[in-house]
Amino acid sequence: MPFFTDKGRIRKVWHSIRNTFQRDRSQQAASRTEHKKNDNVTPRWVHKKPITLAIGAIAALVIVGFSGNQYVKAHAVDFVQVYMNGNLVGEVASQDQVNQLISRKQSELKKNNPNITMVLETGTLKFEHKSAYKAKPASSETLQKLEGLFSAHAKGVELVVNGKAIGIVKDQATADAILKRVKGKYAPQTVAKKQAIEVTALAFSSRSVAANSNPTRSALKSVNFLEKVTTDVKDVQPTDILNADQVYLMLVKGTVKATKYTVQEGDCVGCIAHKFNISKQVIYDRNPWIQDDMIKVGDELDLTVLKPQVTVQTIENVTETVSIEPITVIQKNSNMRAGEQKLIRQGQSGKKKVVYRQVKQNGYLMSEELIGEQVLESTVPAIIMKGTKVILGEGSGNFAWPVSGARLTSGFGQRWGRMHKGVDLVGNSSILAADNGVVSFAGTKNGLGNCIIINHKNGYETTYGHLSKISVSEGQVVEKGDKIGVMGNTGHSFGTHLHFEVHKNGELQNPLKYL
Ligand SMILES: [Zn+2]
């Protein structure tokens, strides 16, 4: 080793310095006795000389030693020992080489697996810095060996529902986006939309109701999964990673296989639903092309019953503007005849805002609760004045058939060259008062036989002829529909029937205009 050869050299130099020093000391001892007499030289000077020489010798020694070190240093090579998980892998010229290897491997992984998070396992690397004379570290061998020791795996994020693994996606952002999309399927209002709705709701109160074309609004209050949905970061193989659409479909469809059915002779939507023991709604939902239940032989139906892995529960506040009908206030007036009424004030309908809290699961309404009501526009009640004054025997002005099940056998007007003053009716034999009134005649009249005349005290009179029996007497007050006699064939008559006349202020009327 170069260190030992140098030591011999140092010893030789030291030996020559020591000899010089000793020789000097004997010369000084001689001159000291000589100078004692003339005292030319101060003793201090004399004493100083050997010290000066010693310092010089040490300096020389230091210089020799220093230059030896310089030599070693000039030929020493720094290198790094690389340990992986505590085991020596080899030596490299610099740690940078290892760092470069790692970053090269990492970019290779990234390039070969563009959409996957790859992790390079380098183990625990430790570096020991060494230096040796003319060392030649086998860098490339070490790096090659190290590369062989490295391993790689993918990192994925697994979606777990109630402890059941659904699928692995490439990263947390993808997992989050899928969950957001599932929620969005049943809660279509995004956060941005929700804010817009709240803004509308604020503006709503200050604007007129009429300006609001769509009175139904829905504000999403919460959306969450009923199941425990978690995500776990996992070390996986790149092939384990599924794309986002696959995992989304697994969540909303479950792992149910598609069921197809071809419509056969005699099938109907309801029959197929019954045959497969599924709801008709499933058939409509899965086959939106069906209109008015129309399916024909050969049509292919999708009868897949989805069993989603998750249940999205949404809570929405649904606001509706509904109209309120006005109430009617009745004012009684004893100066007005009973049955008469007069509209005093037209009612006006109002508007109110009602808020329902709807809980839906996967879009199906589970419960609805009225949580708020606010009147936006009050109603104006209608006022109707109703008369209470009752005049006994006064007609209503509306006539009822005097015979139930009446059949007309002869009309009003000219007949065989003579005027027929009324109508002839057959039907039930009971004769009924056509309106309220007072019996003004009950007896026999020429031609009409047994006859009743009722004065309705409103300008009208009615006549009932050919009766077999009269059941009322003159002056009697009758009500509309009261039985007043029995149909007959008395007077100038050819067969049992009722002859019925209507007079208005003494003028003959065609009764059919009033019946
Ligand atoms: Zn007649």
From TrEMBL:
Highest taxon of the source? Bacteria
Q: Where is the composition biased (Basic and acidic residues)?
A: 22-39
- In residue numbers, the region (Disordered) covers 22-43
**Its Gene Ontology molecular function terms?**
metalloendopeptidase activity
Has keyword Signal? Answer: yes
Keywords for this protein: Signal
UniProt-listed Pfam families: G5, LysM, Peptidase_M23
The LysM domain covers which part of the protein? 259-303
Q: Taking every annotated instance into account, which residue ranges of this chain make up the domain G5?
A: 310-390
This one is known as: Peptidase M23
